[in-house]
Amino acid sequence: MQAIQPTDNSAQLSLTSPLPEFLRKSLEGCASLPTLPSVAMNVLTIARSPNASVKAYAEAIEHDPVLTTRLLALANSAYYARSAPPISSCQEAVARIGLDTTLAATLSFSLFRQKGANAYLQRVWSRSLIAAIASRYLAEQLCPSRKGFVFTAALLQDIGVLALKSLYPEEVESVYETPAEHHPEVSHNEHRLFGCDHAIVGAWLAAKWGVPAPIAEAIHTSHLDFSSAPADLLCIRLSGHIADAWLSPSPAQALVNLMRKLESSHLTDHLALAALLNTIEDQLPSLANILEVTAPTHQDNEALLAEAQQLLFEQTLALSARLDQQQSELAQLLERQNELESRSRTDALTGIANRGWLEEQLDTRFRQCRDVGGTLSVVFMDIDHFKSINDQYGHLTGDNVLVSFGKLLSAVVRDGDLAGRYGGEEFMVVLPGEDANGAKKFAQRIAYRLQEQPMTWHEDRPVYVTVSIGVACLNDGGFANSTELINAADKSMYFIKHSGRCGIAVYGH
């Protein structure tokens, strides 16, 4: 009899977080990956068919008496039967639990053979069972028509652990044999080792078996944030957090953390936490027994919720007590913000004002002068032949020239004046209260200093520069705003540059 071959859908799997290429090649070449028996592959083939039916599922499963018996046990368990009469046929069992859950059960019966497994694998299967029960409970509230799909994806969300343990048994020992307390920490450690986590590997493995694409995609995203997701995926993602809280060494604190996460979501309207915990407590033992997984330790839900509520109350008080500390921290943040604002006003290279701060301050002072009838002048400067300096000596020397020129301006301005770098090799000085004659004298002092003082040295040789300077005074034109005043000084400066450079021109004179 010819063996049934699985349908490999892994190449078509859409992964928003890709499977690293080295890991994909290793997985494809690994002979010890978990495999499925022929009956499970046959059920998968039927699941991919658009005409899948209860009868087709039942006929495929009936070829395996052990699987049929366990499926009947599941359908007659407290998880599904409740007050319904017992059933005795495979077709009735499939009809009762649904096609998606039949698929999940078939795969799980093949995979969860772990009674002798190590403690961490037992924890993985326990997490999967709790998540499956929790997700089905949530789906009954949020998306009843999708509860079978949700149950299946939640139950299979951690199957990637099987593949990683088969592929790298020694490397994963630090991740799985001494497990982290929180599942996200496990995922972080997997990313550190493999460049992805077991959810991505699990999606690939499911697609490799031929699991329907929506289920494989749901496995892939099962560990993402639940704050914004469609209802069915939200149930799956939240179920993992619930399972982690149930299995936590400090379940009450874990529940508090979960409740805080839920405070900002609409889920609090649908999630009756006590009813959910009771559902898990009632259904977990029988489901674990049917799947041959050791059930987690029994929880006293009433005491657990009471402790969680007390912790929540105590932590709320502690948060209130921290108000003074937070106010102090806020003051420090404001101080830091002021420091950052000061830096935002400064040119990074020269340490003097930048263009934005120059223009803002000039605009403020321009309006003040216009309101009170005062005056001010602008001195606009451009270092001559600066490109030649960069070309001849290099950009480091050019930067040194700019820095030294900025220091020269800082040394010659008075208190209340503002010197800054306007851009490139252009500089500007705002002189409040100064008329055109005083601004021209200021410009002459700069030109004289440049004759006497080199701006830098290159290979023990001094580098001197000259500047073209334009001056504009508020009193010498009908300037409507500060921009027109800058443009006037700029035009005067360009008059000098076009007239041979190294000189001073005053607008209107």
Automatic annotation (TrEMBL):
Coiled coil: 316-343
Keyword presence, Protein biosynthesis: no
InterPro entries, per database record: Diguanylate_Cyclase, GGDEF_dom, HDOD, Nucleotide_cyclase, Rev_trsase/Diguanyl_cyclase
Highest taxon, organism lineage: Bacteria
Listed name of the protein: diguanylate cyclase
Family matches, as Gene3D superfamilies: 3.30.70.270, Hypothetical protein af1432 (1.10.3210.10)
Keywords on record: Coiled coil, Nucleotidyltransferase, Transferase
MF term (GO), any: diguanylate cyclase activity
Organismal lineage: Bacteria, Pseudomonadati, Pseudomonadota, Gammaproteobacteria, Oceanospirillales
Domain HDOD: 33-225
SMART domains per UniProt: GGDEF (SM00267)
Reaction catalysis annotation: 2 GTP = 3',3'-c-di-GMP + 2 diphosphate
Ranges for domain GGDEF: 374-509
Organism listed in the record: Vreelandella lionensis
PROSITE patterns per record: GGDEF, HDOD
